[in-house]
Structure to design on (79 residues):
């Protein structure tokens, strides 16, 4: 399974005490790339639970699509 994730951050986000979950006492960092509260986990990773190992996925505007192959701009231009 591969998931293509687009991020636009250009630097780190520093955590502070207000980022700690009051109930659980921890900070959950998103590792799936789908969180609307990135870099924090908001439970969106549940949408990935049925992904097939051999597929590549893109999530855009709330929809999931299977990608046949990834082409870089240089490949698309024939370079
Ligand atoms: S790991 Fe990404 S939303 Fe939970």
């Amino acid at each position: 399974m591969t998931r293509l994730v687009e991020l636009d951050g250009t630097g780190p986000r520093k955590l502070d005490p207000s980022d700690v979950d009051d109930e659980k006492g921890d900070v959950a960092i998103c590792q799936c790339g789908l969180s609307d509260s990135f870099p924090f986990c908001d439970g969106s990773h549940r949408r990935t639970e049925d992904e097939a190992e051999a597929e590549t996925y893109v999530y855009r505007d709330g929809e999931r699509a299977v990608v046949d192959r990834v082409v870089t701009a240089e490949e698309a231009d024939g370079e």
